[in-house]
Amino acid sequence: MLDILGFIFYAGASLVILFIAAFSGGISRLLALPAALGYILLAFWSIEQASSDIRRQDKQKDERLMLLLNVVSFGLGATSFYIYMHSVVTPILLLAPAFVIGLWRSWRG
Question: Among 48, 80, 98, 107, whose Cα sits 20 to 30 Å from the Cα of 25?
Answer without folding.
Answer: 98
